[in-house]
Amino acid sequence: MSDFLTGIAFFLIIEGLVYALAPSALKRMAAYLPAVPEGQLRAAGLGAMVLGVAMVWFIRGA
């Protein structure tokens, strides 16, 4: 459970950094998102999930 909470904490740190360091870029990206097809967003989300799982797998030495 502590690994899960650590992951959530890192997520919040990274999200906070984006809002603190590049708020205008975040606004532009948010305005652009409705123009991106849903299939492309799903593919990007799935790719990010797969990459994240693979990174955890390799880091943990499985």
Strand proportion, as a percent range, falls in under 5%
Shape: flat
Structural class: mainly alpha
Biggest β-sheet description: none
Number of domains: 1
Order of helices and strands: HHH
Number of discrete helical segments: 3
* Terminal CA distance: 19 Å
Mean pLDDT: 92
Low-confidence stretches: none
InterPro entries: DUF2065
Pfam families: DUF2065
Transmembrane segments: 39-59
Keywords: Membrane, Transmembrane, Transmembrane helix
Can you offer a commentary on this structure?
The chain has 62 residues and is mainly α. The protein has one domain (2-60). The chain contains 3 helices and no strands. It has helices at residues 2-21, 23-32, 38-60. The protein starts with a helix and ends with a helix. The chain crosses the membrane at residues 39-59. Pfam families: DUF2065. This is DUF2065 domain-containing protein.
